[in-house]
Amino acid sequence: MDGARTAKQRIFLGAEADAALRRKRVALVGLGATGSVQAAWLARGGVGHLTLMDRDLVELSNLQRQILYTEGDLGRFKAEAAATRLAEANPEVDLRPVVADLTSGNALELLSGFDLILDGTDNFEARFLLNDVALRTGTPWIYAGAIGAEGVVWPLNPPRTPCLRCLLEEPPSSGDVDTCDSAGVLGPAVGVIGSWAALEALKILSGKEPHEELARFDLWRNERQFIRAPAERCRFCKEGITEFLDARWTLRASALCGLEGVQIRVNPPGHLDLEGIAARLRTRTGTPWTLSDPALRGEDGGCRVTLFRDGRAILHGPVTPERARGWYTEVVGC
Ligand SMILES: [Zn+2]
């Protein structure tokens, strides 16, 4: 073991806590902006194992704030590009990239057996699922999110501590939530939030108590706020109700945020025969379809279609969720 690598951290944490980090297993869900920052600090800090889960590809508009990626990574899966970059920073970490869409059908399988689960996601559906996984498996997790120049961080370990639903009973409806597409986001704000979450992670992993309250920063207006959950626990963590984890949906079609089009997700994610589907689509549309892993791409009915091997599909163009669902069922089955 290279003792020099974390020498400065060891002075602060102590030899025992520093060494303990190397035995810890952490899962990070979402490797966008806040996820990049959290992953970088934990890998450099010498966490033993890091599972890196993300479903998306690196795009040009990510580079402004997703600090793990460079132009050479465009079109790669974020999970894989992140693992490459982090291995360069610290080859001693056991890194496991997982390209997956987290759903109720695969969440327990993918997120069991960790000392800590970190939130690098960009949506409340995923966070409520993480909250359920944490509750079911007894794993601490850290809620983190940033938008504009503001963000929140909240370390949780239900049922020992309050859970996300003690403060926020249901996911806010999508119309009520600002997203990166509606509000924009500043790179340095993401840096602060990701770093704050990583710092709380280091406390948890070295056996210290994290900050108890939800911390909220508005870094443009110079405001900060600490919010404590009500003293009374919600019925979900009190009674162990995990309704997001128990949800048994099979196919969801939702309008893309900020763009014309629809995203289709399947639960649990599968393994499509993209070669067979490509042949069918070429016959159906009479147009070229290109299959280069990870995705099959082509056009049908005025939409640009990207179909991933795990069953996810994105249809860019003038299409409603209902029509997209019909197209998917017809072409892919399900
Ligand atoms: Zn609760």
Put the structure in a nutshell.
The protein has 334 residues and is of the alpha/beta class. It folds into 2 domains: 7-246, Rossmann fold (3-Layer(aba) Sandwich); 251-331, TATA-Binding Protein (2-Layer Sandwich). The chain is built from 13 helices and 14 strands.
Structure description:
The protein is α/β, with parallel strands linked by helices. The protein folds into 2 domains: 7-246, NAD(P)-binding Rossmann-like Domain (Rossmann fold, 3-Layer(aba) Sandwich), CATH 3.40.50.720; 251-331, TATA-Binding Protein (2-Layer Sandwich). The chain contains 13 helices and 14 strands. It has helices at 7-13, 15-21, 33-44, 78-89, 107-111, 124-137, 164-167, 180-183, 187-205, 235-239, 243-246, 274-285, 321-331; strands spanning 25-29, 49-54, 94-99, 116-119, 141-147, 150-156, 214-218, 223-227, 251-255, 261-266, 290-292, 295-300, 303-308, 313-316. It has an 8-stranded mixed sheet with strand order 3-2-1-4-5-6-7-8, with helices on both faces. It has a 6-stranded antiparallel sheet with strand order 9-10-14-13-12-11, with helices on one face. A hairpin with a 2-residue loop joins strand 11 (290-292) and strand 12. Helix 3 (33-44) packs parallel to helix 4 and helix 3 (33-44) packs across helix 9. The longest helix has 19 residues, at 187-205. It is globular, with a radius of gyration of 21 Å. 43% of the residues are buried. The structure holds zinc ion. Zinc ion binds at residues 158, 162-163, 165-166, 233-234, 236-237.
